[in-house]
Structure formats: structure tokens, C-alpha cells
Amino acid sequence: MAANYWASTQRRHWLFTREKLAEVRDRLRDQDKASHSQFPLPDQRLLNIYFNQQLIKLGKRMSTRQQAIATAQVYLKRFYTKNEIRQTNPYLVLTTAFYLACKMEECPQHIRFVAGEARGLYPEFITPDVAKLGECEFALISEMSSQLIVHHPYRTLSELQNELALSSDEVALAWSVINDHYLTDLPLLHPPHIIAVMAIIVAVVFKPSHPGNFGNSAQSALAGVMRDGGGMGMLAALSDKSGSGPPRIQNLVQWLAESEVDIKAVIECTQELLSLYEVWEQYNEKHCKELIGRMVRTKNLDK
Amino acid sequence: MALSPFGSRSPAVTVASPNSALRLKAAAAAPQNASASTSTIIRSDPNPERELAEQLNDDIRRKYVKGKKLGEGTYAIVYLGNYRDDPSSLVAIKKIKVNAEYKDGLTMDAIREVKYLQELSHRNIIALHDVFSSKDQNLNLVLEFLPGGDLEMLIKDGDIHYGAADIKAWMGMLARGVWFCHENFVLHRDIKPNNLLIGADGEVKLADFGLARSFADPYLNMTHQVITRWYRPPELLFGARQYSGAVDVWSMGMVFAELLLRVPLLAGMSDLDQITKICEAFGTPTEENWPGVTQLPNYVTDKVVPLQGRDFFLRQFPTAGPVGADLLMSMCVLDPRKRATALQVLQHRWWTTEPRPTNNEDLPRKSGTKKMGDDLARVGGETDEGLFKNAARQLDFGGKK
């Protein structure tokens, strides 16, 4: 994180309303209806899950920070608000986003190394020509209007950790929830502190009874609990300031009431997360891979 | 490749002229077929959106007229430019040479510069008005034009006379720029007189963000190979991998001393020599005056010189006056934890002590435009080699003017 979020290009240029985002995407679709009917792609969130897995694979052999992966995911989202995915080679774009994000988050990797890794993973789709990656980097920067700093919710989480006396389990779970939010449109819709607060609430309210390692995603830990009517309980807990819930939650509610954080936005984020976990159950890696592969091959996007 | 101006950064350029709006409409309605975009990632049928994006980029490009070359480095060329519709308003256009065939991607320097200048907007930091890409697919940064040269020129020019009040004015502007960086969690990491450019109105501006970075998360390491040697603080010379804004404050102290003495205070010939010179000037860092220093990776000591007291600064820098000497001393404390912060520097009594800082319009100055070209061209110019091992930009002693 650098510079001031409130004066940042992220807040000024890369924060959309839901309507605006839908409009932007509709426009992209209208421009290329043929491709849309010819190459159906899975739900955006399922694609995001797929992309995220690819980024993690890419980063595996390099010591990449989670934050660089997160930045790369935001770059992908920004890029695809300007460009129709069906006119791009997503493998090249995501490799480039990864390469650029590593530089941006101060854990640079050499271009040859990144290109080599990507070629190892997707020999069909990444040419041996390193220059393509360099060229795509240039395109990516241009499309993002050279606005490269991304503010993430992780920092807010660490800052609130002490203030809210979060346990290490709660922090770990909230951290995973933040990882998951990159699979949705939330990074384009809400400022990072809202996301962080949402993650904390989810972690505290839905803390699974069997704490443990949540891994990279909180999906397995949370999907069940949240679906089982938990969401309603939480909304009730939040609106009930007189306090009938457990003291832990009451304290949080108290803090929220005083914090002036936009509760409506937080609730909206929670619902978005909930629906992500629902959609997730349909996720099928092979299916995504096939659809993207067919699209790239047929349209010769990899050349 | 098009750069779509998703809103522009500078207030001076936010208003789209009706003219360009018209052209945009025309472009959207009747996409010309001349799409020469050979982009690899976006291909297939020409589509209006791309045309539109290119058109927008062209609009930014057309806003400026590129003039004569001001200077050239290995990785950047700087041109004088001006707004097309106002030839009297000058800009500097820094063209970053994307190395032929994109072999190595954009350098960290270029990335850092764009990254930070996009977000930092302050009177004492060079302004980035626009970014656009040119036909040959180069990144062009449209920067504020600063014709007044840099502080190094003023220091070295024997014909220019300046006094304590002038130094106070320059240091004040430097300190405000550095404070603003730190306030926004950015370390500059290359503060030295020839990175401090001077505007037509005499305002000092911090330039060259090629080594800048944001504060690292706690416990994450950063490279210690930053800051030109003569301005590098002891913790970096000792190889500290975790450091703070205190590194910039030390550099500021060195600039302050150099302004007073008109020669660099500590001109080490090597990193080791630099440490020796620091010890001789201020005293040897020991566990007593800097707890933990002996644990730093490159800590060395031979003979222990006792820590210099206030007398030393008073004697050495009489022009600063006693209060100025105190300020300098607080910026040159060996232990970075005890060194003044940029905010403390700004809060120092010296600023409100006589003499008052000189008004900008009365500051000594030098004219000529060539220097800015050199300064900016050097930016990003000397660092590419060993980017991942050693980001430092060493001084070129042989080529020193």
C-alpha cells in the first residue's frame, strides 16, 4: 500500500457502481455478439476461480506474496472492463498481470522466468517469444491508464486485529475471506476497508466450531455455515443493537455502530460472498479449461 | 497500442475540449479502417471500442507538441514540449525507450516512477500531467517543466552567492516534499542535490522516483543498495534490510550540509570509505549510542571515534546559526530510531528563527533548459543492469561534471 486511498486513482477511477459495471460489460458484449454466442464462457466468478488457480500455480515456484496475486487479480478485472475477454488470450493476459503485479508489489521476477513458468504450464497458449509478454505488459499498463497502485484490505485487517481483539483463528479466517473476495466483483465496487470489515464480521460471526487451517480460501469452512440460514442470523445480529447475541458479537456490533462504516455496503458484500460460495459448487476446472482453450484456439488468439 | 485516458490526472487537463468530443463521436460512429494495431493480445475484427481507446490516446498525444530534445540517457529521452493550444505552457516529455522487442519488460525504474507520480500530487513533487503511448509503442510521461536547473548546479556555480535565508527556503521546500512522501507511505530513497529540480518560480521539486517504494510491511526485507553513496545513511551502509523514512532524513541532512559548505560533506570513494568518513565526522556507531548496530550484517569498526557533540556542528556550520546547527544535528543522528522524522524536521524552531526564508522570487537562480533534460534522462538511465541484485545507482566518479 502506498499513498492515500482517499486521493488515490483507485478511488477516483476504478470504483464502479453496480449499474455502471453492468453497463460497461453490456457494451463490450454488444460490440461482439457473435463471439458471445459462439463461445459461451462460464459465470464470471467461475472464471475468476479458474484464473486465480492459474495465478497460484504460476506463483508456486517463485516466492510470490499473496498480495501480488491479489494485485494481479485486480489488474485482470480492470483490464477486462476495457476489453472483451473473447478477443484476448487470457493465459497471456494473466501471466502478464502476474508479472506486472510482482514488480508492483516489490517482489520482481525476471520476465524470462515468468515466461518460462507460463510456457511450462500452458505450452499450447504461450509462445516462447518473451517479447509477447513485454508487449502485453505495455498494453496492460496502457489500458489501466498507468494507474497501478492497488489498495488491499489486508492492511486494514492487521490494523483492526488489536483494536477488535481478534483471535488468530479469526484473523486467519478473515484473511481467507479477503482472498476469496477477489473472485467476485467486490474489488471494483467497494473500498478496501469495507471489505476488511466484512471479512472480520464473517470471521467472528460464522467462526466454524472446528478451528484449523483454512488454507487459501475460506470456502470449504464457510459455505455450509453461511448457507444454513446463518446469513439471516447475522443480519439480525447487526440490526439488533440492544444486544441479545453472544457478547463477542455484541462488542463487534457496538464497534460497528460507532465506526461509521457503511453497514449497508458491508451487508451487500456479505451477500456477494455468500452467493460466491453457492456458485462455487458448480465449479469445474476442466470445463473452464476446455471452453477457454476452444475459444483461444478457434480464434487464433494465441498467435 | 492504445492508452485510454480513464480520466486524467491533472486538473489542468481534465476538461475535454468540445473539439475532441466531436472527434470521439465521429470515431465511434464511423470507425476508420486504418486500425494498424498489431497487438498480439487483442486481435480479430477491428472493433469500435479499440478505435475509441486509440482515439482517446491520440487525443492526449495531440494535446502536446514535442519540441527539441533536452537530453538523452540509456533508457529515456527527454524532450521539451508544450500544450498545442497554448504554446507558452511548457512541459517536459520523457519518453521511456521500451527496449527493442520488449525483451526485458519495463524496468522497475519506469514502473516506480509512473506508479508513484500518478498518486502523489504536491507542490514540492514534480507533477505528472499525462501518460500516453506513441506510435512506436513507447511510454511517454508528460512532466512538469522545471527550467531552473537543480540544486547541485547552484551549489557548484561559484558565481552564485546565496545565504542562510536562501538555504532555509530551499530546505523548507525539500522538507515539505519529503514529509508528503512519508505521509503517504512512500520512501524516496535517492535524495541528493541533482534530484532536486527548480521550477520557473523558484520552487524546489523532488524528482526521480525511480528508486522509490512504499513502506514495506513489518518484517519484510528491502534492499539496502539504495541512495547515492554520499547521501546514504549508516544503517544502509551496514546492510540493514528494514528501515524507515529516517534514510531520507539522513540524505536531507547531507543536502543541508552541502548547501552550507558548498561541497559534499562526506564524499566517500567506496562504501567502506563512506562508513569511515561518517565515523570521522560524527563518531563511531557503537552499542552505546545505537543499540543493536553491531548486529547489522555489514557492521565494521576499527578505531572508535567518540560521538560528536553540539560543539562540532556549531563550529563546522557557522552559517546555519546555532538553531540551524541543532536541526542539522538532529538529522544526522547515527541511530535511525533517534534521528528526526520528516515531521519533526518541519516542526523545528529553525524555520521560525531569523532570518526568514527568502521568498521564491528572490531566490538566486540560473536559467537554461538543458539541465532538466540531463536530470530527467538520467532518471531510469543508469540502473537497469543488475536490477534484481542491486538497485543502487552508484555515482559515476569519472563522468562527474
From TrEMBL, chain A:
It is found in: Nucleus. InterPro entries: Cyclin-like_dom, Cyclin-like_sf, Cyclin/Ssn8, Cyclin_N. Keywords: Activator, Cyclin, Nucleus, Repressor, Transcription, Transcription regulation. GO terms for cellular component: nucleus. GO terms for biological process: regulation of transcription by RNA polymerase II. Residues 53-142 form the Cyclin-like domain. It comes from the Eukaryota. The keyword Transcription regulation applies. One of its GO terms (molecular function) is cyclin-dependent protein serine/threonine kinase regulator activity. Component of the SRB8-11 complex, a regulatory module of the Mediator complex. PANTHER family: CYCLIN (PTHR10026). Belongs to the cyclin family. Cyclin C subfamily. Component of the SRB8-11 complex. The SRB8-11 complex is a regulatory module of the Mediator complex which is itself involved in regulation of basal and activated RNA polymerase II-dependent transcription. The SRB8-11 complex may be involved in the transcriptional repression of a subset of genes regulated by Mediator. It may inhibit the association of the Mediator complex with RNA polymerase II to form the holoenzyme complex. The SRB8-11 complex phosphorylates the C-terminal domain (CTD) of the largest subunit of RNA polymerase II. This is RNA polymerase II holoenzyme cyclin-like subunit.
UniProtKB/TrEMBL annotation, chain B:
It catalyses: L-seryl-[protein] + ATP = O-phospho-L-seryl-[protein] + ADP + H(+); L-threonyl-[protein] + ATP = O-phospho-L-threonyl-[protein] + ADP + H(+). Pfam families: Pkinase (PF00069). Belongs to the protein kinase superfamily. CMGC Ser/Thr protein kinase family. CDC2/CDKX subfamily. This is Cyclin-dependent kinase 7. Residues 64-351 form the Protein kinase domain. The keyword Phosphoprotein applies. ATP binds at L70, G71, E72, G73, T74, Y75, A76, I77, V78, K94, K95. Coiled coil: none annotated. SUPFAM superfamilies: Protein kinase-like (PK-like). Its EC number is 2.7.11.22, 2.7.11.23. Residues 354-383 are annotated as: Disordered. It comes from the Eukaryota. The active site is at D190.
